[in-house]
Amino acid sequence: MEQYAIKGGNPLVGEVEIGGAKNAALPILAAAVMTDETVYIDNIPDVRDTKVLTRAMQSIGVMVKPEGRHRVVINAAQIHSLVVEDDNIKKIRASYYLIGALLGKYKQAEVALPGGCDIGCRAIDQHIKGFKALGAEVLIEHGLIKTRAERLIGCNIYMDVVSVGATINIMMAAALAEGQTTIENAAKEPHVVDLANFLNSMGANIKGAGTDVIRIKGVKKLHGSEYTIIPDQIEAGTFMFAAAITKGDVMVKNVIPKHLESISSKLLEIGCEIVEADDCLRVISSKPLEHTHVKTLPYPGFPTDMQPQITVALGLSKGTSIVTESIFENRFKYVDELTRMGANIKVEGNTAIIDGVAKYTGASITAPDLRAGAALVMAGLAAEGVTVVDDIHYIARGYEDFHLKLQSLGAQIAVINSERELQKFKLKVG
Ligand code: EPZ
To answer: Which residues pair with 206 in a beta bridge?
Structure first.
């Protein structure tokens, strides 16, 4: 089992290139099956979740041909099955995007119920409500969501909770429905907008993405397209907080600063300096970190996917901070691991009360999920001594070359496979 070994203490300094957004790439890959014509997609991050999804697409006959590391050519003219049961697909949340995509195009789909990171109850009632409102029957049987419709007819759908996944799924199915669909209380995340732009580039008629009312006029069919995915807001935010926590000076390149406003404003509040240019942001952390309070919210609020990273930084800030998680109820599982590194954090329900400590100390810890895993690596980078992080396969779900990018900024981090390799790492870093 691979682990990360980290020797903390080096400030991260330099430039880092941010890749394409995982959470935009996943629905865009799925939506590429909605046309029989060829689609070219650029800036796909080379991470585990996109690989699992493309393999599942191949299993039903979709041609997915990589051209280099970040570009694929997709043609879905030869789909031979509408049942997606690939063993791995259950492990990723985004598998359910194939339901909206296939239902829209073929009026039928059967997909294994999704898994994903264990960060709390991950209901799908809003997806089902949307499919039903469009006229589909939905059945959950033998671990599959089965859906079928004679016709999909546009309608008004009010979302009871703001859901990225449900907004995306309904948007895909409605793009090929008859008449107009209105989604109210829609998610406004940049990846929702990116998918709408991609569908529009294939001939869909979607307006209002990025606001809480999305209007979709169904079209008869979609055509081929060439599209480039937006930069990953969460990868960028992770490196920005890594700069903050290590007292570093890092330029994150290839970002859309507007997408990072909630993250930048919290970094300013805790005492970092931010220098913004067109498509890059520099984070300079030269003063002791200050405390603050934060509540995760749907976009444009502070992202739940950055909650562990800010908590790790606040754990080293002066004074008491409060972090409230309002999206997923089980997203503080990493706090026990952080406590083993010396953090003073008390979790009560969906709130973490953090009393900043002067330092973390290296320990053997386990990544409980993707973002928490990245955050624990950051804690290791700031800690005194050596930290070993287990279960780093979670991190590979959503970060491309995570340790290589950190190394290029001066971090002492390596992938190890055994106790012997750990000893070698310790000798090397002194
Ligand atoms: C997406 O998950 C992301 N995943 C998550 O990123 C992210 O944390 C989340 O959005 C919130 O931003 C992908 O894009 C693949 P939701 P999703 O539907 O779509 C409740 C990462 O680290 N809900 O917006 O599953 C739900 O329980 C991952 O990259 C319902 O009640 O999230 C949650 O409390 C982890 N009924 C809230 O809504 C539903 O039908 C938001 O979930 C759907 C959701």
So the answer is: 216
Is residue 121 part of the annotated active site? The answer reads: no
The residue whose CA has the least distance to atom 21 of ligand 1 is 305
Handedness of CA 187, 191, 196, 199 (dihedral sign): negative
Count CB neighbours of 211 within 10 A: 11
Model-wide pTM > 0.85: yes
Q: pLDDT of 94-119, one tens digit each?
A: 888 999 999 999 999 999 887 655 66
Sorted by where each starts, the structural domains of the chain and their CATH numbers stand as: 3-19+231-429 (3.65.10.10), 22-228 (3.65.10.10)
pLDDT digits (tens, 9 = 90+) for 163-210: 999 999 999 999 999 999 999 999 999 999 999 999 999 999 999 999
Q: What would the two tokens of residue 261 be? A: 């406003």
Predicted pLDDT of residue 115: 63
Probe residue for ligand 1, chosen from 47, 157, 163 as the CB with the greatest number of ligand atoms within 8 Å: 163
| Closest C-alpha to 242, from 429, 408, 356, 397 | 408
CA–CA gap between residue 169 and residue 114 (Å, rounded): 13
Residue 163 one-letter amino acid? S
- Ligand 1 atom nearest the C-alpha of 94 is 15
Cα–Cα distance, 75 to 79 (Å, whole number): 9
Q: Whose CA is nearest to atom 39 of ligand 1?
A: 124
Residues paired with residue 140 on neighbouring β-strands, in sequence order: 145
